[in-house]
Amino acid sequence: MSWVRIPQNVLAGALAIIFLFPLAWAAVASVSPQAGTAQVDGWGFGNYETLANYQAGIGQYLINSTVVSVLTVLFTLIVSVLGGYAFAMFTFPGRNVLFLVTLAILMVPYATLLIPLYVLLNDLGLQGSLVGLALVLTMFQLPFAVFMMRISFESIPNELREAALIDGCGSFRALLHVLVPAVKPGLITVGLFAFLAAWNDFITPLVLISDSDKAPLPLAVANMRQQVMGIVDYGATEAGVVVLALPCVLLFLALQRHYVRGFMSGALKG
Length: 270
Fold this sequence. Notes:
Radius of gyration: 22 Å
Structural class: mainly alpha
Distance between the termini: 34 Å
Number of strands: 0
Order of helices and strands: HHHHHHHHHHHH
Shape: globular
Number of helices: 12
Largest sheet: none
């Protein structure tokens, strides 16, 4: 190991500890004895039992979160791939202006859009539904997703698309069978961001979901915090944090290589 890399490794290790410490603390607190929780004596999983049996049950809340997250990922990938492909591969009047307008949505605080979206979903008959929630979360993801997919497609040599067209592929078939496999890291990056945003979002379901049985897990955990006489059940809350974080950590570890490559898409484009 080069002596020059030692400070870098020490700094990386320190940052890893800082970022992992809250999660480790929550994991330990979720199984440790605490007054006012289901785990009063000894170490165990009493807090997880409280979480599992809360109202509709953790299984239902996990299903709700999974449905919303999967739909958000699917909607985001479909729209961003088509949008990124159009912005990268086709020339049309106002292309750059339209792209800048799409990116400008990032500057709008999304909380200010929730009430108009609530009214719109109510008119469409989707208010309070998981599909409506997924559509709203998709809208918030699209500016970043379209940007990522555009630079991913732009990093592909144009000769690859031209060769596919010469071989008889139409534009859509060239996209589906030739270009999409070539931008796999970008797809994974967009999908991972969409999943993490949908899985952990609290404000949007708080406004749009009124039926407690349709609540995703973050909203259910927040509701569970307030027990009798306003006393906060910190043990069950920590258990909910662990259950929320675990899928995100595992998914990120499994896809981190593609995630980094996705962010590097277009970095060397000359």
